[in-house]
Amino acid sequence: MRHSASHLLATAVMELWPNTKLAIGPAIENGFYYDFDFLNPVSEADFPKIEAKMAEIKAKNLDFTKKDVSIEEAKKLFSNQPYKLELVDELAKIEGVKLSDLQGVKLNIYKMENFIDLCKGPHVEKGSDIGPIKLLSLAGAYWRGSEKNKMLTRVYGTCFPTQKELDDYLNFLEEAKKRDHRTIGKELDLFSIDDYVGPGLILWHPKLSIVREEIELYWRKQHRKHGYQYVYTPHVGLDNLWKTSGHLDFFKEGMFPLMAMELKNKEERGSYYIKPMNCPFHVRIFKSRTRSYRDLPLRWCELGSVYRYEESGVLHGMLRVRGFTQDDAHIICREDQFVEEVNQILDFALELNHDFGFDNLNVYLSTRDRENLSKYVGEEKVWQLAEKTLKEILEKRKISYKEDIGGAKFYGPSIDLKAVDALGREWQGTTIQLDMNLPAKFGMVYVGEDGKEHVPVMIHRTLLGAMERFVGTLIEHYAGAFPVWLAPVQVKIIPISDKSLDYAQKIKEKLFSEEIRVEVDDRSERMQAKIRDAEKEKVPYMLVVGPKEAESESVSVRVRGEKDLGLMSFDQFLALIKEDIAKKRQVC
Amino acid sequence: MRHSASHLLATAVMELWPNTKLAIGPAIENGFYYDFDFLNPVSEADFPKIEAKMAEIKAKNLDFTKKDVSIEEAKKLFSNQPYKLELVDELAKIEGVKLSDLQGVKLNIYKMENFIDLCKGPHVEKGSDIGPIKLLSLAGAYWRGSEKNKMLTRVYGTCFPTQKELDDYLNFLEEAKKRDHRTIGKELDLFSIDDYVGPGLILWHPKLSIVREEIELYWRKQHRKHGYQYVYTPHVGLDNLWKTSGHLDFFKEGMFPLMAMELKNKEERGSYYIKPMNCPFHVRIFKSRTRSYRDLPLRWCELGSVYRYEESGVLHGMLRVRGFTQDDAHIICREDQFVEEVNQILDFALELNHDFGFDNLNVYLSTRDRENLSKYVGEEKVWQLAEKTLKEILEKRKISYKEDIGGAKFYGPSIDLKAVDALGREWQGTTIQLDMNLPAKFGMVYVGEDGKEHVPVMIHRTLLGAMERFVGTLIEHYAGAFPVWLAPVQVKIIPISDKSLDYAQKIKEKLFSEEIRVEVDDRSERMQAKIRDAEKEKVPYMLVVGPKEAESESVSVRVRGEKDLGLMSFDQFLALIKEDIAKKRQVC
Fold it and tell me: In the prediction, which pLDDT does B101 show?
């Protein structure tokens, strides 16, 4: 239906601007687009006109008809459409097909009204089968995605079976736009990405850094509680390390380029790579001394900053970046321990996600792409065992999951939990990877109860994923209105006039000494304006203070979102906010 | 005197092994050395023989006589000493001196007994003026320090005016050796440096990571209290950033080599450098929005990991490394604010140093090397003002200081505090750098009260310096016996037999839930052996538990260093250790 809608769009455009050249128009997730080469520029202001024309054509309820044509016929049909001709030529040049055979080749075309398109279909039967349509946006797009080609105009639209569904989707888009972490990040001075620093690298401004500090503090506490030990490792390592780990064989495309040490000094051997993962460093710590079966399991965690090369085109705010800090851990254990360890990690992950308001999680079992086995290190039977074990763990816990074929890392399969946010969107977070390959590759051993050397099993896991992506997700999930324990500014004190400034300062000092993040709005603005600005800043508590409050050592408490809690004593308020923080209340 | 002792050493060596070839033998800090090319290998086992011969010669109390000789004469005197001849030839080839002038050139030689050396002096008058001597060690050393030349044998020794001073120094060396953080680091499983990772890069093992975590936690708390805000910035930045900051012009030698992005993708512009400093990133955050005079001072801190290239020969454990985490901060303020800010930082630095047991601090004012002005960025008058202001601040506070000429960074002078440790050694820590140059270079401005743009002043500062060096220093300062608040394991529970294991576990759980770092020694060893091992591990508290303790809910408390506190109730002990931690007591 959406593909048919894109034909309808092209039909309307050709009727309005007959000299337009057509590129392609597929259906995509939640909608469709069509790329046009307009003679004169078209803007979003033209959407009503296009939509009206589309409605007019749709009302005729014409049939979509399919036809097979020869290449010669196709070339004639599209003689005025250079992009279509290029596609026809390409289809005609399918490798391995002899020229003589081409005579028999038929191309599919679809026709509706006077509009004909080169298209494999399928389509709806007639115009009235297409549900309500909305054009959404307009963007530049290179012909065939290459910068070397001409920039075309891409018109995005969507269409749903019913008006209700369309409206819901448009509301969702509206809400998602309001929650876009890039917009909120700018408005609330949370972070920036800087041309001098480089694409995909996040500068965390003071306000968002507090959010991250609080998360990290909590994360460290929880990890100690769960029997983890912290380690710190460098951000660079020699080529030999990455060769041994397999990264230079299986992950090189994702790594930043080498730092050639001979450029510094001819006597320096090797090159450094900035780390794309933390595991090889944890392995080297393991290997720094003899380990006994009594030492296992070792649970080593690190907030490790890693750097991965991604094409600049796919980068997206804090959600898809080139530099990020993983909340990483490696559990090194015996074969008789790893099932229990995976189960413990699952429990820990559920607990942690819950504390950030993510109780709705979609579960995936990420396995190998069996048609691309050269992408993975290790033996077939080891992979089979690892995949089978993870599957059994999920099934025993009666967790329903989907299989993500090809989602495994090069060293092992994983269980992935994706958090579902306030808008029902899925975000990558927890991953628990079972690795029975790298330990052998690195020659990791422990001395067993039998006095012999055994190879341990390694579990790689992150619970939040990456701080950048996780906090970016939180911004969207909370629409910038962080719960009190995370809010950059937890309390804004608003004196009703300069006469109450002293009392405001006194309250501020008291809260500050209790480690509450507090600011006084001492501008000479009207109280209502100050409240409005604090609301805009998404500060959870506003304390309005005047002579009445000063006299009774109290505060008038307003909650973000225009709730008024009225007058309470300072101590009452302190107890209230402390409880919000201690309980990590999602709303105040 | 020490230089004369080195001649005495060479005299003795030549008498014992007349075919030895002599290189050079200077006085150094706390001693002297002489480099020899021995015909047959000599070892430290030969030291008594050499020392006896030196004593014998010294007893003759012969004079040191100085003589001027021509180059021709020198060549004759040293005809049998190829290294000396090479030096004579070199002295004869002084650039810009005409050959005819060389006739008049005289070289100094010193003679004592039959030993003659090419030497500018000065020396003591006679053998008896040399104090008590001790040969210390033996090491390989390339002739003229180049790997291309022959490896010679360097004999180190020292000599002091009195036997008492020599003995004190030898005791100091013994003590320093025992405290060597590399030895302790290995014994206590604190850290490692790994061939696969690279020289000068520290892997922090779990036990030392706890120490660092505690320090960082405390550091963050203190910084919030002192009005700082935290920021997080990436570890890499584009070449444009480092060009603008001046690092590529003034600090390139200290930077790791570039990561050329064209190796990833021809369409990628520029190259990345891993950061040697954090300042340019903080500057970019400042520049991400308009700043007003009301926003200043901004105090932004970051535990920022930086990487600097150092020759591998100068690296030393955790104390001189290639990768380190600075406890960095940048204060961006108005001209009328920076004197007050420097004073506040000084107060903060004294407070923080005190909490780590460093009350004895040597103060330095680091200024430019005026004979190398091309090493510095910025105008003469700005430098003069900055140097003068820091000097005035110190003088107003009546702090006595030394000037460290050439110690300034390329962008400004600094006040440096060096901590004096338990052995009286000086360690680099706090540095407060006044920078009136980079803000202009980066085009940093704020809108003043007058509505016009002004350039702010920037203060770069670290209080602890680098986590690696600071914690390495702490290991040596405490000889591995960290105070309770930092100790990796704070309590070791020692059941007197397996029958008391349940009670031991119960006590452990109770302490663990109070966030005390606790271990039970459940090995089937004798109690005394367990105590000895806990002492070796430098655990501050050992709780010995048996049936008597179980019955009365109490513990028998032993303190590291064989102090016995006797029986106390569990609650009493808990209160005691909590107070140790809260007060950061240096000894328990």
Answer: 54
Inter-chain residue contact A274 with B236, CB threshold 8 Å: yes
pTM of the full predicted structure? 0.87
* Mean pLDDT along residues A501-530: 95
The partner residue sitting opposite A220, judged by closest CB among B206, B213, B256, is: B213
Classified as helix, coil or strand, B292 is strand
A173: how many CB neighbours lie within 10 A of its CB?
Answer: 17
pLDDT of residue A321: 97
Q: Which of A197, A220, A265 sits opposite B241 (nearest CB)?
A: A197
Cβ-count burial A545-574 (b if 16+ within 10 Å, e if not): bbeebbeeebbbbbebeeeeeeebebeebb
A289 CB neighbours in chain B (<8 A) are 189
* Interface touch A236/B196, C-beta < 8 Å: no
**Across all residues in chain B, what is the average pLDDT?**
92
Could you give the ipTM of this predicted complex? 0.88
Q: What share of chain A is helix, strand, coil (3-state, %, to 5)?
A: 40, 25, 35
**Other C-beta atoms lying within 10 Å of the C-beta of residue B568:** 17
Angle at A336 between CA A332 and CA A337, to 5 degrees: 45
Q: Which residues of B touch A285 (CB under 8 A)?
A: 192, 203, 205
Q: Which residues of chain B have pLDDT under 70?
A: 94-106, 588
Q: How far apart are CA A210 and CA A216, in angstroms?
A: 10
Count of CB atoms situated within 10 Å of the CB of A332: 26
- Tell which residue, A287, A292, A447, A273, has the closest CA to residue B194: A287
If you measure CA to CA, which chain B residue comes closest to A200?
B234
Residue holding tokens 């309808």?
A8
The sign of the dihedral angle between the CA atoms of A235, A237, A239, A245 is negative
Distance CA(B579)–CA(B38), nearest Å, equals 61
Q: Provide the 8-state DSSP code for B293.
A: G
Checking phi first, is residue A566 left (phi over 0); if not, alpha (psi -120 to 50) or beta?
Answer: left
DSSP label of A320 = B
| Chain A residues inside the 8 Å CB shell of B488 | none
* Cβ <8 Å between A284 and B257: no
Which residues are bridge partners to B364 per DSSP?
B402, B416
- CB atoms A194 and B284 under 8 Å: yes
CA–CA min distance B344, chain A (Å): 19
Q: Say which of B209, B231, B237 has its CB closest to residue A231.
A: B209
Token digits of residue B314? 């100068």
Amino acid making up residue B63: D
Tens of pLDDT, residues A67-77: 888 888 888 88
Separation in Å, CA B323 to CA A231, A236, B466, B548, B579: 15, 9, 10, 52, 35
Q: Among partner residues A195, A238, A264, which is closest to B257 by beta-carbon distance?
A: A264
Average pLDDT over residues A420-442: 89
Flag whether pLDDT at A102 surpasses 60: no
Best mutation target, A209, A248, A302, to test chain B (most B CBs within 10 A): A209
Tell how strand B457-466 and strand B426-435 pair up. antiparallel
Taking an 8 Å cut-off on Cβ atoms, the answer to whether A212 and B232 are in contact is yes
Under an 8 A CB cutoff, do A234 and B280 touch? no
Task: Say how far apart CA A76 and CA A87 lie, in whole Å.
Answer: 13
Mean pLDDT, rounded, for A468-479: 94
Top-ranked range on mean pLDDT: pick from A124-133, A475-484, B126-135, B262-271: A475-484
Per-residue pLDDT band for A211 (boundaries 50, 70, 90) equals: very high
Cβ(B476)–Cβ(B468) below 8 Å: no
Tell me which residue in A220, A238, A289 faces B198 most closely, judged by beta carbons: A238
Over the stretch B523-573, which tens digit does the pLDDT of each residue have? Answer: 989 999 999 999 999 999 999 999 999 999 999 999 998 789 999 999 999
Predicted confidence at residue A61, as pLDDT, reads 83
Residues A366 and A403: their CA atoms lie apart, in Å, by: 6
